[in-house]
Q: What sequence folds into this?
């Protein structure tokens, strides 16, 4: 328990430092936009483009569907099992910039999905790996800037997303 407390203390320190920096206000507008790119509509659009281009037999479509069928339940179980309060509930006199869609913060679902898609897309478009991972990282950072996640929420979200994608790519690749 001492380790978890130490991690939480560090998390609160990093979060508070970021929220109180001068640049925070300037990051807010772009963070809203970046966060919205991780809401899910973009993933549906990407899947639709692959269906339009390759049909329902698209291996990428199958991997996306499998990945979300695995990642979303794991994310839901972790979030509702660990029940880590969001910064607004955990810190006195703090208000997040946006209203989150659910109560708990660990792990970040936006970050998990973004890193999962970045990993999957990088497999199919390896020349775009850097922009995909920059985008996923910015989605995760935007969630902290907007005040709905602590830094470790996004770190664990990125690990969950990448792990799920790698597992699915390996699983589909073996069939």
A:
């Amino acid at each position: 328990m001492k380790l978890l407390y130490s991690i939480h203390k560090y998390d609160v320190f990093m979060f508070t430092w970021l929220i109180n920096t001068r640049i925070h206000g300037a990051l807010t507008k772009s963070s809203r936009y970046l966060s919205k790119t991780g809401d899910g509509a973009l993933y549906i659009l990407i899947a639709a483009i692959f269906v339009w281009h390759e049909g329902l037999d698209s291996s990428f479509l199958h991997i996306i569907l499998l990945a979300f069928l695995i990642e979303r339940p794991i994310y839901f179980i972790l979030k509702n099992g660990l029940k880590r309060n969001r910064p607004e509930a955990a810190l006195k006199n703090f208000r997040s910039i946006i209203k989150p869609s659910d109560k708990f913060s660990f792990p970040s679902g936006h970050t998990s999905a973004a890193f999962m898609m970045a990993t999957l897309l990088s497999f199919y478009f390896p020349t775009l790996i850097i922009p995909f991972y920059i985008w996923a990282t910015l989605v995760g950072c935007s969630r902290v800037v907007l005040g709905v996640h602590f830094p470790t929420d996004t770190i664990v979200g990125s690990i969950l997303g990448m792990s799920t994608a790698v597992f699915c790519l390996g699983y589909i690749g073996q069939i």
